[in-house]
Amino acid sequence: MFYKNILSALILFVLLTGFVRVSRLIPAAETKKWVISETSNLSVNGTTNINKFTCDIPNYGKTDTLTLIKGKNDKDLVLSGSVELKIQSFDCHNSMMTHDLRKTLKASTFPVLKINFLSLSKLPNLTMQPELITGLVDIEIAGVRKRFDVSYQISTDAQKGIHLVGTRDVNFSDFNLIPPRKLGGMIKTNDKLNVSFHLKIKAEN
Amino acid sequence: MKKIFVSGLIAGCILFVLSYGSLFLAVKFFPSLFTEYFNPLFNSDGSRDVLFYMHAFIFSFALSWFWDRFKSLFKGVFILRGIEFGLVYSFIALLPVMWISFSALDITVAMVASWFAYGLAQAIIAGMVFAKINP
Q1: What residue in A sits closest to B32 (Cα-Cα)?
Q2: A7: exposed, middle or buried (C-beta count within 10 Å: 0-12, 13-18, 19+)?
Q3: How far apart (Å, rounded) are the C-alpha atoms in residues A134 and A151?
Q4: What is the Cα gyration radius of chain A?
Q5: Are B34 and A50 inside 8 Å of each other by CB?
Q6: Which of A12, A126, A150, B116 could form a disulfide with A166 if both were Cys (CB 3.0 to 4.6 A apart)?
Q7: pLDDT tens profile B67-99
Q8: What are the residue ranges of helices labelled H in chain A?
Q9: Among all residues of chain B, which has the CA nearest to that of A184?
Q10: Are A184 and B49 within 8 A, CB to CB?
Q11: How large is the C-alpha radius of gyration of chain B?
Q12: What are phi and psi of B119, to 5 degrees?
């Protein structure tokens, strides 16, 4: 009788739970939505053999969303989403240089610079103290996409806004671009550029 | 004809060294004068570099013919003949070209003035060379 009761209980359990998806039993991956503010900005610093230049996009001008998905362990962090920046929005604080940069980046054919976010090295603590983390991104310029490991500084402000500041050195040649050279190469832009972006983010749950 | 070619070639070699040498030094020591050249008007990709460096020879062969045709008009010692030759070239050819360039292109007065001075100096040097080789 005792074994019969146990068997009945087991059958009842199987009937009650057999049609429940396994994914409901295992805790779901933690997902966070980060909304990028339109006041986010990007700047590109470069040098020539005669001067230094800074070209920036002072305002992103639209909002986009990044999704942070945390897997079973802290190392499984997927950051998905992208930002698209108009090449025409670059301002080098010198109209000729601005036009020259747009021409170099082939703005008429490829009007958008795209940064695709792929991952973060660890889940940020999100405190006011800047935390150094790294992450993978795909940067697409002039139709050429390259993967880079980007160094980030992440912190929060008093209003709980998240500040993600990313920096990375890239080369014109990484994107099959020829750095501008003038007067038979007497004046030339160096291949290396420092790209830095500051994403101002609001966390959404 | 041979004299035109030889004096053009010699003047071309001298102008090549002096022109690009002085340009190199100017870029090195007065870099701020050259920031305006980061302008889409100027070729950026290096595809015309050979043409740029041939300029000294194109210039000297053209002036060599001009010198041979009108050298009798330039009197005095070779330095004076060179200066007069350079001034004549600059007023009849360079000045109108600079005028139309400034009026049509998005370039500065300083840039046009430097091109005029550069062309004038080149023509004076070429004139002195011609006055020596093909008097």
Answers
A1: A50
A2: exposed
A3: 5
A4: 24
A5: yes
A6: A150
A7: 999 999 999 999 999 999 999 999 999 999 999
A8: 2-17, 22-25, 95-104
A9: B49
A10: yes
A11: 16
A12: -65, -40
Quote ipTM for the complex: 0.82
Helix (H, G, I), strand (E, B) or coil at A135: strand
Number of domains in chain A: 1
- How do strand A181-182 and strand A131-141 relate by DSSP bridges? unpaired
Range of the domain at A38: 27-204
Smallest Cβ–Cβ distance between A183 and the set B32, B45, B52 belongs to B52
Residues in chain B, total: 135
H helix or E strand, kind and range, residue A44 = strand A41-48
Is residue B45 less than 8 Å (CB to CB) from chain A?
Answer: yes
Q: How far is the C-alpha of A163 from the C-alpha of A157, rounded, in Å?
A: 8
Please give the pLDDT value at position A75: 67
Q: Is A51 exposed, middle or buried (0-12, 13-18, 19+ CB in 10 A)?
A: middle
Q: How far apart are CA B62 and CA A7, in angstroms?
A: 110
